[in-house]
Design brief:
3-stranded antiparallel β-sheet, single chain, 663 residues, elongated, mainly alpha
Length: 663
């Protein structure tokens, strides 16, 4: 990713010229494409969901299926076509993702709206594969099934697959504002928005433009049915210049503007919503809409609301916020501008990935961290201090016991480092061990991290010996030291991590990185976890063979581990997976009820694995890798070292593409 010549500010000037240059193939509403481009940016970014970090405009997958064919994205192919000459002019110096979001920003500013900044650096995907799990697809059903489309719940983002958030006509098109309010809160919270941000985004966005549903016959075939001319429109008189476009456009099936000044930034949306009485009616597109009763003039009489707008009147929190915005446009500007930046930048992750001349100050959703200490410790000396702890019992934490009774913490330190780093998500570039948030709630209290607070306490004596040593670096180095002591290939340590400061806002953000235990099928779960973490199949299988602590397994509620000697990193794990016969502990359950935590025991031996382990032999691709590692320990060690180092350093960003540890 690069910054275009002259910076993003130079591109903004050219975008401004496009906004009011109406084209015959798709005439601009009110002579201004601004609202159209805001919709494009919103829908490109609004696919983001917090459950797994998927979606968003990084990748610009709105240009590809499945997003390109979503019902909610009807006619946005025309918005992309309007931007194509500018993209061709700048070529690879600006990505489609950056151009789409920057155009939305320019549109808002050109109509008087507030923008706090622009985070550049999006990279375009070559296809839409990364959106398959957004649906509709078999991949989506595997991780987030939705029995009734229109009542979809977490981990999916929208209530309706194929829409960005909710049905504008209320749940299942019912026209129920109270039910719509519940859907709105549910859906917007799944993309990380609170009530203030939700109301500001919807009302601020609806300050501009209109909805389109000029007749009941619809927009015509979509891009799957007619790739050459998707959504041609069926409204108006066939053969005339404006057939299916302009005043005859059909997009969502709803019709009309929200305000009397649809190309100006105002708080009229909230003034009208609160100040007028609204009555339900069937619009020209055949859907439930709302119109004002006894409007004071024809212009106001022509304004419209959707059930999802009227919902704000039927929820106490939303109503209070709406009244505030109706009375105070300054408050609206503050909350809208910040929420818009969050909407359009959240999938970019850390602020360190943002580039350009318009980047806003770090925001809490970008997980800003303090600068690392100027004076770094001698990590070689730190490593020697950790080695002395590996076989010395600490009152802070019960150790493993090696054959002969020697206490041993190596596998526990490896587990601590892995749990700290494995929150990293390559989907939205959040998580990881930089910041050492495993010290804080809620991460510290996740069941998988049971006992890890005590493991950190066992290391704190070392930290006090070395000024400038962050807990994050100490955790990662402890894991590395233990692995090398256990026989791994040499691992390269990259110091310079820093420790986050605990805060309520940080704790709210950390909830979004909780383990994805909603996926029941262990094969799907293991494969999905690898994809979210950005691991190849070989890397994921290699990391599964890391040191495993029997005492930690017992702490987590399991009978034990696959080994009673966790002090050696070998390919024994893979030889056992393919060489032993495994049976469920307790009353067996059918395979469709097996989870990653279902425990198995080797027949005739006192060793144990879980459904997550056996998924590696149940899945054909994973099994081939297991067999390769079982046959060649040197190969396993090589891949493991690469995977471990990559995961530990995954969150050490240097721009959108770089990593400070690459140097």
């Amino acid at each position: 990713a690069v910054v275009p010549p002259g910076g993003f500010a130079a591109v903004k000037k050219e975008i401004e010229a496009i906004l009011t240059d109406s084209q015959d193939f798709w005439p601009a509403d009110f002579g201004n494409y601004g609202p159209f481009f805001i919709r494009l940016a919103w829908h490109c970014a609004g696919s983001y969901r917090t459950s797994d970090g998927r979606g968003g405009c990084d990748g610009a997958r709105i240009r590809h299926f499945p997003e390109f064919g979503w019902e909610d994205n009807a006619n946005l192919d025309k918005a992309l076509e309007l931007l194509e000459p500018l993209k061709l002019k700048y070529g690879d110096t600006i990505s489609w993702g950056d151009l789409i979001i920057l155009t939305g920003d320019v549109a808002i500013e050109s109509m008087g709206g507030p923008i706090i900044g622009f985070c550049g650096g999006r990279r375009d995907d070559k296809n839409g594969d990364a959106s398959l799990k957004l649906g509709p697809s078999d991949e989506q059903e595997a991780i987030g099934p939705c029995e009734v489309n229109g009542k979809c719940e977490f981990p999916l983002g929208p209530t309706t697959v194929g829409l960005i958030y909710v049905n504008p006509a209320g749940p299942l098109g019912s026209g129920d504002p109270a039910g719509s309010a519940k859907d709105i809160r549910s859906s917007f919270s799944r993309m990380g928005m609170n009530d203030l941000e939700t109301v500001a985004l919807i009302g601020g966005g609806h300050a501009f433009g209109k909805v389109h549903g000029a007749c009941e016959t619809g927009h015509g075939p979509g891009p799957l049915e007619d790739p050459s001319n998707p959504w041609p429109g069926t409204c108006g008189t066939p053969g005339t210049p404006l057939f299916g476009r302009g005043p005859n456009t059909f997009t969502s099936g709803f019709e009309g503007p929200w305000t009397t000044r649809p190309t100006e930034w105002t708080n009229l949306y909230f003034k009208n919503l609160i100040g007028l009485e609204w009555v339900e009616f069937i619009g020209p597109g055949g859907n439930i809409q709302w119109k004002p009763v006894d409007a004071p003039n024809e212009a106001i009489a022509a304004t419209r609301m959707l059930t999802s707008d009227i919902a704000f009147l039927h929820d106490p929190s939303y109503l209070e916020i709406s009244k505030m915005f109706a009375e105070n446009i300054t408050a609206l500007e503050f909350y809208f501008s910040n929420a818009w930046y969050k909407l359009t930048s959240r999938d970019m992750g850390s602020v360190k990935r943002c580039i350009g001349d318009l980047v806003a100050p770090p925001q809490i959703f970008q997980r800003p961290l303090p600068e690392p200490p100027a004076q770094q410790p001698d990590f070689g000396m730190v490593k020697n201090a950790i080695k002395k702890l590996l076989r010395k019992e600490s009152p802070a934490l019960k150790p493993d016991s090696l054959p002969g009774g020697t206490p041993y913490y190596g596998a526990l330190f490896v587990n601590l480092a892995y749990q700290c780093a494995s929150t990293f998500r390559a989907t939205d570039y959040l998580g990881g061990c930089n910041g050492a948030t495993i010290r804080f709630r809620p991460e510290r209290r996740w069941p998988v991290n049971r006992g890890m607070g005590r493991a950190i306490r066992a290391l704190r004596g070392i930290r006090s010996q070395f000024p400038g040593l962050s807990i994050a670096d100490l955790i990662v180095l402890a894991g590395q030291t233990a692995l090398e002591d256990a026989g791994s290939d040499p691992l390269v340590f990259c110091g310079g991590r820093t420790d986050a400061k605990n805060s309520k806002e940080l704790r709210v953000e950390m909830r979004n990185l909780a383990p994805r235990d909603y996926i029941r099928n262990p094969i799907v779960s293991v494969r999905d976890s690898a994809q979210v973490m950005g691991l190849t199949s070989h890397e994921a299988v290699a990391l599964a063979g890391r040191l495993r602590s029997p005492t930690q397994q017992e702490r987590l509620g399991f009978k034990g581990s696959y080994t009673n000697d966790p002090s050696m990193l070998t390919n024994e794990y893979y030889r056992l997976l393919v060489g032993e016969t495994w049976e469920q502990i307790g009353s067996p359950v059918p395979f469709d009820q097996v989870t990653v935590d279902t425990e198995y025991k080797a027949v005739g031996r006192d060793i144990y694995v879980t459904g997550a382990d056996l998924a590696l032999v149940w899945d054909p691709e994973f099994k081939a890798i297991v067999q390769a590692f079982a046959a060649d320990e040197a190969y396993f060690q090589k891949v493991f070292a690469q995977a471990w180092t990559g995961l530990m350093n995954a969150d050490r960003f240097d721009g959108p593409d770089g990593n400070v540890c690459d140097n």
